[in-house]
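tokens incoming
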């Protein structure tokens, strides 16, 4: 028996500074705010995918280096270079510039948000 359908999806990340996060996700990434719940802002990432940024006292600090505990928020697109140009024009610091990652056959780059969450923009090449 198949499970019931899933209509939409939201991933929630937590911050101690919702104002800084909102500025990044709205003004830098340009995501559409679809719901403002005062302590939580929900953004459209794709037609049925959303990202919620919620303010929480004592929100966990993300590690400065990647490891198996790192949270990675990935945006999948056919225009990685377009996103790179868009973010570079907004003064974003890049942790990893666009490159082909042969092991899993993707083209991608990496940045961080104000909370030190890793954001990857990638294209599947196969």
């Amino acid at each position: 028996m198949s499970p019931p359908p899933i209509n939409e999806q939201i991933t929630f990340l937590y911050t101690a500074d919702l104002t800084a996060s909102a500025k990044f996700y709205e003004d830098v990434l340009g995501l559409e705010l679809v719901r403002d719940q005062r302590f939580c802002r929900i953004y459209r990432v794709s037609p049925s995918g959303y990202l919620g940024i919620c303010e929480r006292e004592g929100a966990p600090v993300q590690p400065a280096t990647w490891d198996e505990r790192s949270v990675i928020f990935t945006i999948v697109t056919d225009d990685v270079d377009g996103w790179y140009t868009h973010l570079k024009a907004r003064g974003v610091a890049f942790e990893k510039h666009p490159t082909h990652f042969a092991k899993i056959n993707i083209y991608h780059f990496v940045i961080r948000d104000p909370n030190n969450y890793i954001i990857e923009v990638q294209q599947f090449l196969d």
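note: Residues 71 and 95 are 15 Å apart (CA to CA).
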